[in-house]
Amino acid sequence: MSLHKDLGKQLFDSLNSGQSIAPIRDHIDNNVDAAYAVQKELVALRKERGEKVVGKKIGLTSFAVQEQLGVDQPDYGILFDTMDVSASGTFDTSKAILPKVEGELTFVLGKDITASNITMAMLKDAISEIHASIEIVDSRVEGWNIRISDTIADNASGSHFIIGKDFKTLEEMDPSTAMMRLYKNGELESEGTGKACMDNPL
């Protein structure tokens, strides 16, 4: 078994058991290409058992978090149908390790984007809906002891998500100035605008 396959299997087993593992970077350092190769193996294992891809997630979009991890770019992961708990608004924590909650914007595409060189105009034309959403992130790496290669390999630390029912269009709102407030048991925990997402979520 190749190193990438082995690490992907370790992450897959951790996802299933709820038992954390040692940092992936112990084996691949902070090699981004190697980390995506590991993620590819993890994604393949999830597809093999019937999970369906429903979208993609972009992480590390805060400049502060990028600085914390010593990187100058975001990362991405895959969203599976099994991660979507929008219908119930709850998720099973029995397999979670150290989950965290983040406020997000979800962009729904009304049509596929097939061009290899995507312009902002193409992107805006394809977006049909914008939803306020909640993402539950979790790290299979023990104690969230992560660097860029760890989170990439671990499917961008994805766990579950809840997409709000109401939505706006780009004609109705500017994602960069949209205000989001996150409450816990009625108490405000955090707030910010889309500008915190690399100046503009688009």
Considering the chains and any ligands shown, give keywords for the structure.
7 strands, two-stranded antiparallel ribbon, 202 residues, Fumarylacetoacetate hydrolase, domain 2, alpha+beta, three-stranded antiparallel beta sheet
Structural class, please?
alpha+beta
- What is the name of the CATH class? Alpha Beta
Average of per-residue pLDDT values:
94
Question: Tell me about the biggest sheet?
Answer: 3 strands, antiparallel
How do the SSEs run, as a string of H and E? Answer: HHHEHEEHEHEEE
CATH superfamily: Fumarylacetoacetase-like, C-terminal domain
Number of helices: 6
CATH topology: Fumarylacetoacetate hydrolase, domain 2
Distance between the termini: 39 Å
> How many DSSP-defined strands?
7
Counted up, domains total: 1
Shape assignment: globular
Percent strand equals: 25-35%
